[in-house]
């Protein structure tokens, strides 16, 4: 099971909500915990559901600060134990293994003078010592001075207060992979501060239950905190899906798209339909190459950002970090446009940049459209492709075969004619190229692509 914790620093803007959805889709956690949502619980519940997490608990922000949310999927049974403006505590029963353990999402008080109240809260939650217990979130504190770079030194008493609370609860740090810091402030070397404020801690029973766990500090392109991902059983298989060719709207954002169209069209031969077919075949090859490059581009940008974050934060390095995050955002914008077309939805036009929603819509539509079996006229259920083809052909063949005999003239005698001869001639005349082009221009560019996969968008643009 994967769990993700993230201080998102506000979900009031559609773009930040879109980035959250994309990260959830990318990492696919079974449970997430968010801090500083800065929205009311009702709004956060809507955001959570649009992310595909229909189960959860949301805590409203107080004014313009705070706000918590924990959402989970149906991969496990979760029961709520308690919650406040600083924590959400649940009991998890893993459906696959039947293991029962606790997970507490924790948000340490952002003000130093109230930090002790957070540690008292943590101690009060330690009421099931024999149950495996994981606590993750933004503690707003460090344990060692080495977990801070830049700015004034952290008072020793503050670090000792945090360490004492963890020790009293029997919680040990889970470690991490990736960049060492989880929070950053300042875009110039003389003002840059980095700290490890977010982490996962667990008691001995949890360590024994999940000996193969892994904690990762993830790369991101917004928020001053990075997501923390806990994988209780590191190592999972991936499913590779093959796609039917269709011209994607996101390709128009590629610099090589228009030159590729011109090159393929000029190198094609034959009539219009033959040339379109050759363009499609060429685009199929171009798309496969683009998909490989796109995956490697985003991966390379993430690796580049990870290496930059490991370097001394000079002005040059910090400027390159900003440029890299902008490039990551551009690649993510392309993916959002890709999933909009897949879902045949117009929500992006209205400001709801919802990659995860579009992906879910496209996946649900694919599942709904798939025919798994058919029943023949004699009541026999068929699931084979050839058998279902025969059943469908016979059914529609008989459906559209007329069984009416005789003339309909007696019925038509009672119908008044409303089409004049002039109107009839106008209706029966050949379509003009102008009329055809008007229809093509009026089509929604992202709707049904047609058999060749090129669709209205391609014709309208090129």
TrEMBL record:
Domain Endonuclease/exonuclease/phosphatase: 4-225
GO molecular function term, any single one: catalytic activity
InterPro entries according to UniProt: Endo/exonu/phosph_ase_sf (IPR036691), Endo/exonuclease/phosphatase (IPR005135)
SUPFAM superfamilies associated with the record: DNase I-like
Residues in coiled coil: none
The name this protein goes by in its record: Endonuclease/exonuclease/phosphatase domain-containing protein
